Amino acid sequence: MPKGPLRGQICAALASVFGIDIRDLDNTATPVMKKYEYKTVKIEFSMSVFKKGIPDIAKTLNHEGADGWRLRQMILPAESGGGSERMIAILERELEE
To answer: Reduced to 3 states, what is the DSSP secondary structure of residue 71?
Structure first.
């Protein structure tokens, strides 16, 4: 946004178009960047051609969610032969300041 008289004209035009008070356009607050922390949780199970096991993912996520963690991403790393013995949940929560 330009400074000086041109800024005033632009603000007056915007306020008029949007039907707001011109003072509402004087946002001097500095935006605050949120900060997060991350952790990983291994969810063990067995899945292959010969074994099938379904982990209780909801139980794990609800347990972590009670402490403020939320699921960011789920990873299923493949072992040799295509099977896997675990999922890895990447969890995130906002840091309190």
So the answer is: strand
- In terms of Cα–Cα distance, which of 82, 34, 91, 94 is closest to 60? 91
- Measure CA of the first residue to CA of the last residue in the chain; give whole Å: 31
Cα 78–chain centre separation? 26
Q: Using an 8 Å Cβ cutoff, are 95 and 35 in contact? A: yes
- Helix and strand numbers, DSSP H then E, in the chain: 2, 3
CB 12 within 8 A of CB 18: no
Cα–chain center distance at 35:
11
Global pTM reads 0.60
Q: How many angstroms separate the CA atoms of 38 and 95, rounded? A: 10
pLDDT in tens, 56-92: 889 999 999 999 999 999 998 887 777 777 889 999 9
Give residue 5's Cα distance to chain centre.
41
Residue 64: both structure tokens together: 């972590």
